[in-house]
Specification:
single chain, 333 residues, 4-stranded antiparallel β-sheet, 10 helices, elongated, Flag_FliM
């Protein structure tokens, strides 16, 4: 990256050259010298700045969807925001999180491999307290989860993955599925320690409780779709259009679809005793006058008003009126 000097810095540099404090020849020598940049093979750069920006956009949407979901579930004030998106070795991520935390291990087909949604105990226990009828306060001492608490936690976060699916729709249709829950990071090894991961950190506030939610996505998991995370793919890709042959096949199939068509002569109310006592030749009076039109339903929707009749010794119905959308109540007796 090229450094841009301010006007004050330019003036100071010119003054130093004029007074002889700095030598222009020495500056030229420094520029011509070969610059060496250290590269740490343990921190391999797998995600470009373009990829990081795309991941940031995706998970800003994820944060908004999570805020809506948790606000509805917990019925309290929830605020979730993306703090940063960075790449680092998996081992460094494991060492950076608490020894006792909530680790939701999940898969997202068609992507191959496992990912982790790590929730700080303050946030997780505040959610648990709220779900079990409390005020949403985090306990002063974190204990191991009971079976009931584990079940409640799994239900909360398995549904939260719907928000992740919605956020990733612009890139790929995924189906996140919770595989298991761990509380000790040392027992969780989803990739090799030196594998590069994308770490999305979300600051979370539930009532008065604050904490972090971290989403760990190994590079090896999303490597097959890395090209879709580029700006070129987002803005240059065009909408797919169906070929004329596909449209014709689709129209042909829809035109052959069968729908139930029912003409209602009217309705009547009977007691169980009256119904059981019906015999051949009995007359049931309906709630509709003879000169009133018949309701013709397609499926369970009222679509037409018609008149009864016959065609070639077969009963028939003539359509007299088309019912507009939402006007069904006008035809109720």
């Amino acid at each position: 990256m090229v450094d841009v000097l301010s006007q004050n810095e330019i003036d100071a540099l010119l003054a130093a050259l004029s007074s002889g404090e700095m030598d222009a020849e020495e500056l030229k020598k420094e520029e011509t010298q070969k610059k060496i940049r250290a590269y740490d093979f343990k921190r391999a750069v797998r995600f470009s700045k373009d990829h990081i920006r795309s991941l940031t956009r995706i998970h800003e949407n994820f944060a908004r969807f999570l805020t809506t979901y948790f606000s509805a579930q917990l019925r309290t004030f929830v605020q979730i925001n993306v703090v940063q998106v960075e790449q680092l070795p998996y081992d460094e991520f494991i060492r950076s999180i608490p020894k006792m935390t909530i680790l939701n291990i999940f898969e997202a087909e068609p992507l191959e491999g496992r990912m982790v949604l790590e929730v700080h105990p303050n946030v997780a226990y505040a959610m648990l307290d709220r779900m079990l009828g409390g005020q949403g306060n985090a306990p002063s001492k974190i204990n191991a989860l009971t079976e009931i608490e584990t079940t409640v936690m799994e239900r909360i976060f398995s549904r939260a993955f719907d928000s992740l699916q919605e956020a990733w729709k612009t890139v790929i249709d995924i189906s996140p599925r919770l595989e298991g829950m761990e509380t000790n990071p040392q027992f969780m090894q989803i990739v090799s320690p030196n594998e590069t991961i994308a770490l999305i950190s979300l600051s979370t506030k539930i009532g008065e409780t604050t904490g972090m939610i971290n989403l760990c996505i190994p590079h090896v998991v999303i490597e097959p779709i890395m090209s879709r995370l580029s700006v070129h793919h987002w803005f240059v890709s065009q909408k797919k259009t169906r070929a004329p042959e596909e449209i014709e096949i689709l129209e042909n199939r829809v035109s052959k679809a069968k729908l139930p068509l029912v003409a209602e002569l009217g309705t009547s109310s009977l007691t169980i005793r009256e119904f059981l006592g019906l015999n051949i030749g009995d007359v049931i009076s309906l709630n509709k006058q003879v000169d009133h039109g018949l309701k013709i339903r397609v499926g369970d929707r009222l679509k037409f008003i018609g008149s009864p009749g016959s065609v070639k010794d077969r009963m028939a119905v003539q359509i007299d009126e088309i019912v507009s959308e939402g006007a069904e109540e006008d035809y109720d007796e």
